[in-house]
Amino acid sequence: MNNFEYLQAADADQAINLRDKDINAQYLAGGTNLVDLWKYNLTHPAALIDINHIGINNTITENPDGGVRLGAAVRNADTAYHPLVEERYPLLSKAILAGASAQIRNMASNGGNLLQRTRCYYFYDDQVPCNKRIPGSGCPAKTGYNRIHAILGTSDSCIAVFPSDMCIALSALNARVNVIGLDGERSIDFADFHRLPGDAPELDNNLKTGELITSIDLPENGFKDHYSYLKLRDRHSYAFALVSVATALKLDGKLITEARIALGGVAHKPWRVAEAEDFLINKEANRENFSAAAELIVQGAKGYGDNDFKIALAKKAIVRNCMMALDPSSQQPGAQPSA
Amino acid sequence: MDKDKIVGKPISRLEGKLKVTGAAKYAAEYEVENLLHAYVVNSPVTKGKIKSINIDKATALPGVITVLSHINRPKLAWFDLQYADMDAPPGTVFKPFYNDEILYNGQPIALVVAEDFETARYAATLVEFDFEEKPFETFLTDHTEQARPPKFGLATALKPPPPPPTGDFEQAYQDAAVKVESEYQHGTEHHNPMEMFATTTVYNGEGKLTIYDKTQGTINNQLFVANVFGLKYKNVRVLAPFVGGAFGSGLRPQYQLLLCAMAAIHLKRNVRLVLDRKQMFFFSHRPPTKQNLKFATDVNGRLTAMAHTALSETSSYEDYFESVASWSHKLYPAPNTLFEQKVVPLDVCTPLDMRAPGGSTALHAIECTMDELAYKLKIDPLELRLLNYSDTDPSAKKPYTSKALRACYLQAAERFGWKNRTPEPRSMTRGNKLVGYGMATGIWDALQFPSRVEAIINADGKLILNNAVTDIGTGTFTVMTQIAADELGLSIEDVDFRYGDSQKPFSMFQGGSAMTASTGVGIVVATKELKKKILKVARKMDNFPFAKSDDKDIIFEGGRIYLKADPEISISFKEIVAFNKGRNIKTTNMGKPHMLKLRNYSKATHSASFVEVEVDIELGNVTVTRAVTAVAAGKIINPKTAKSQIYGSMVWGISKALHEETIMDKKLGKYINTNLGEYHIPVHADIKDMDVIFAEEEDELINELGIKGVGEIGLVGMPAAISNAIFHATGKRINSLPIHFDELM
Q1: Is the pTM of this model over 0.95?
Q2: Do A238 and B683 touch (CB under 8 A)?
Q3: Are A165 and A171 in contact (CB under 8 A)?
């Protein structure tokens, strides 16, 4: 962990200007991932720009369009337990609480959650090749131990997964990410925020250099009547998802009128398949239809040996979670399968 | 239980408040003046040679004092034996910075010393190396053809080879009515105690060091440092009053001790060296092991033949093995047996005893094999154990000093509700979950080491005891205080047990669940002698009221001596010491196991674990919902600390069965999940109902106190009980640990 300069930004403009001065500067919000990466010798910022005091991103408020705006610097725990989120977006609340530990959620910011780096073993070891860390150096995961790796949207250069739980729910909810940069403000569809590795796995998302996330907008519909988050992992808490599923449904009697299914733990970004969601429209909410949708979601999936099981697991998890969404009270603490 | 006795009472840890308030100081926390901080550079290469080192960038950093390596290290011992700590297996001990050779990935290859920790850590990333890399072998199952019996040496005394064959196994197995053959495997596991390995070395002038170290053996590390650097024993003092867990990793001096002392000697300065979590994966561990078992019975379920072969990884330079193949014949009386224990030398760090070494590995395989036999025989698994129950030790053909395993089976089965089990796999359900009940036996050593204790009565009439033993979090301090208090009839407030210091009288390293018996007997012997000395002084007093009474009729209680017949007349310890011109009355004595008497007996602790699991019917997700473990371990000195130990072991059993595994990437020749985010141990959400029973077991043979020791025995049966419960729930036998839930989908 190198020596560095600590700078405190008074407002967003100052933050992006400070960032522009030094290409090796990084923003600091909760620091829960950044400081880890730094200690592991994976990142070496010359300066830290503390954005915890820039004022505009510390609140959760209602938007004029009926939706809700989550400040980027609001802590994950404060977001999960915020009355507006608990009442209107319980899927998001459950997903956040399925991630990390209480201590980490108390520190981690909403903006930072979107920017988590992968937990790939090989990415985390500065002594081995990794295309995400050193472009062109190679990918030992493909032929190494890849139990935790991706089955969808992989490329020759990278099979890492994006580790967030919160983002799987944000993806299902069609959130938008508001950012500010030297070119001004813009708003990014959640589906376009993260990216697949392709031949540039060093890029996790489509933020431009120096852009700062200011807030996340949730649309009015929070699917509070029919939702569920399921997280499958090797222990019951404090582990990253091998497969997670966020389901949000709108029902008219037994008929599905709107369906959102996002998968976590399987790809370089939250995984949604429009074809599967469209298939469910005007279908009866039952196992058979959910199974058919699951097949569509994982079509094209490819295992790398140790993670082959994820293909079958993802399908089963989707069906179970959709069934749980019909009765959200069947959800278990820690996003475990229904009893 | 005698209500006036302190032994047997569930007393809370005496140092508990210090620990939970942060007042207890650990090795990395001692405040020392003018302290330098060191950080280790570990080899990124698995095997080869260091061709060159460039330290220019590192030393250019302000605050960096020096970078040590094999090139510029101070003089080290030349003889191999001088590196051989008390727990060194046969072979050639690894010597950090000895030469340019790299024997395993993560081997320490340089040490940066700086004014502060952060600078040292940063500078460590700036040291540049040029390596010559050589091909390596690091993956056990790829090299099983290289298996050979381990070499034997001094440490073999604690780890005898498996017993010789009996009868004619091959014939008996061939002829048997019912037989089972199975393979079992588990991967590498690292001890991962909560406290990081750390050493603070205080430089007291030429050749004199005071060392605060994380260790299970203060004297072991004192001798090691003195031998390696050619110092006088009396000039090296190792202190470890608080140890934040160790699980076996502190049985041998780890590399941070040697490097910290090296820097202090080289620079003539006080130096601290703390390892980080990743660096704690660059030393000893439980070796991956592959086992093959062949068990056979007659039609009635009586075992007729047992064969057990264990292959485990060792390093290229020392022959370490867990004693795996020796256990089944200590439990079950099959007439025809064949046991083999082999090692496969690989390019890894030498493994080291970890949480019931050998026992937990072996009993996983043995007790799963017994479960498989029970199904083949259509006999209840508990019934099969009772059918093959042996009061004696069939492997040694000797009686046990005591064996209350039958009581363990029956009491735990009753508490658990074993009778509610329907034997058919997948026959019990609860909503979306398959429910499984499984049980297994545990057996572990009842060890006792020699232990020398100094006992003192001071002018305040208080008892002070000195012994070099550590308290690795097990409750040793509390339990020793209880034993001493009863021996001299004092309250625990009047006993001061001082420990964790190599300058105190001899203790072995703390391991094998042996310390309560070892140090406890030392205390009994020393306090017995102290009583004699107290009386000898007292008898010189004018008007000594009990002049006509025998020593044996004089009672010691409440800091006074008196006769049972007339408690009104008494003399206090204070008065006696005052009469002794205020000089302390003291004695130092060695407690030893009664080798001669015990020669005709076998000794072991036993346990029975019963486990309920729930397995999600579609997703395979496993929860250990209930576990009951009954333990027979002789006298329990403190039911609270003993119970805590068994709870802890049961958690480690869940961990071994379902979670723990250090993953070796065989192409890279290194471990890849070297942090607690990815090296999984159970978290709170994984631990549900747990219950512990201590079966009554009076043992008048084993030692003065009837103690066998607890800790590891609570772990031994758990992995098999969980595996068996998973089989009962799902009908799937998964013999490779840890069991991943996707195998149960």
Answers
A1: yes
A2: yes
A3: no
